[in-house]
Amino acid sequence: MIPALRHAALATALTLSLTACGAHVAPTPEAKGSGPVTLTNCGRQVTYDKVPERVVTNDVGITEIMFALGLEDRMAGFVMPDDKGDLDGVPWKAGYDKVTWLSKDRITKEIVLDARADMVFAGWNYGFGEDNGLTPEALRTSGISSYVLTESCRNGRDKARGIMPPLEALYTDLTNLGKLFGVEERARQLIADFRGQVGAVEAKAPKGADRPTVFLYDSGEDKPFTSGRFAAPDDIITKAGGDHVMNDLKDSWTTVGWETVVQRDPDVIVVNDYGDTTAAQKKNFLLTYPPLAQVSAIRHRRIVVLDYVDLVESPRNAAAIASLGAYLRSVTPR
After folding, report:
1. Spatial contact of 242 and 211, defined as CB atoms under 8 Å apart
2. Which end of the chain is more exposed for a tag (fewer CB within 10 A), N or C?
3. DSSP code of residue 78
4. Spatial CA neighbour of 76 closest among 136, 128, 145
5. Residue 63: what are its φ and ψ, rounded to 5°?
6. Who's near 32: CB < 8 A, 6+ residues apart?
7. Strand 23-25 to strand 37-41: parallel, antiparallel, or no bridges (unpaired)?
């Protein structure tokens, strides 16, 4: 999930530290270069003949990657629902104020064409999909380039997603986009900052048997939708000091059975806060769902809520690790 960083006021600043969000916002850089640029995206070599000038992004984390790189002037707009949390206090609020919110519904090829986009930055199941006819191949026929969110890269196991550890996916996208838009130093600074924040949390994290086990609950009552090895919660949980109980799932976001959750008996459950069902409603469901009654997290009422944008690939991942880490250090397993 940086724009309009008020020219003169920030011209002399090197970094603006936003402690409430655990992020650092530096002055908007001057994008340079004119292409062509060749990048490796989802294991494929992709060449961009020129630097995109009218990018359309889909979803909050993807949009904020562009904002964090200071690329709002290269954007034609963004698409995302309005259920992704309060945007007023985020480090990139100026970007949201400046860039056009094209739609609060699903992204479509018509939206992209109407915006006169020259690139779409989205992901498989984060906007791209055969069901809606919006794919990199379909856009190419209209002369529009694409960049696929690395967290969402398909890995060859049907439509399973994920090809590298989640934080490395974030760093890969920052590096690639930094090269494409000529803001490589900005990308390096962001990555170094994020690595520093994560390292500080890891240094304080519980070790060995003191590490609590953690389950990520996204949604679903008949079956829970959760995170596997290749979605951001895996690194968020692990770097924060927990053991992710679904780490063996070679996918990013996927469905499991409640019997698996009961068998793995997590000490803590993290709730993904978004959508029409509130975090309070999700928490109440978990606490009152009979099959979970003997699960450690339910017996001890250890349920933590994080925002959607914290839990998808985004510049907020490091701050989410710090937040969850503080909680996990207070938990005694079993």
Report:
1. yes
2. C
3. E
4. 145
5. -60, -40
6. 182
7. unpaired
Question: What are 97-108's pLDDT values in tens digits?
Answer: 999 999 999 999
What Å distances lie between residue 299 and 40, 248, 260, 302, 327, CA to CA?
Answer: 47, 25, 17, 8, 17
* Cα–Cα distance measured from residue 147 to residue 57, given in angstroms and rounded to the nearest whole number: 10
The amino acid that residue 5 corresponds to is: L
What single letter denotes the amino acid at residue 225? F
Q: Is the pLDDT of residue 145 over 70?
A: yes
Q: Which residue has the tokens 């100026």?
A: 94
pLDDT-based confidence at residue 333 (cuts at 50, 70, 90): confident
DSSP state letters, 198-213: HHHHHHHS--GGGSPE
Residue 76 Rama label (left phi>0; alpha psi -120 to 50; beta):
alpha
How many CB atoms lie under 10 A from the CB of residue 286?
21
- Using alpha carbons, select from 288, 47, 55, 301 the residue that is nearest to residue 176: 47
- Per DSSP, the three-state class of 80 is coil
**Can you give the pTM of this predicted structure?**
0.88
pLDDT, average across residues 288-300? 98
In the predicted model, is pLDDT for residue 269 greater than 90?
yes
- Per-residue pLDDT of 15-41, as tens digits, reads 333 333 344 444 444 445 566 999 999
Which of 317, 296, 125, 325 minimizes the C-alpha distance to 225? Answer: 125
37 - beta bridge partners? 48
Three-class SS of residue 64? helix
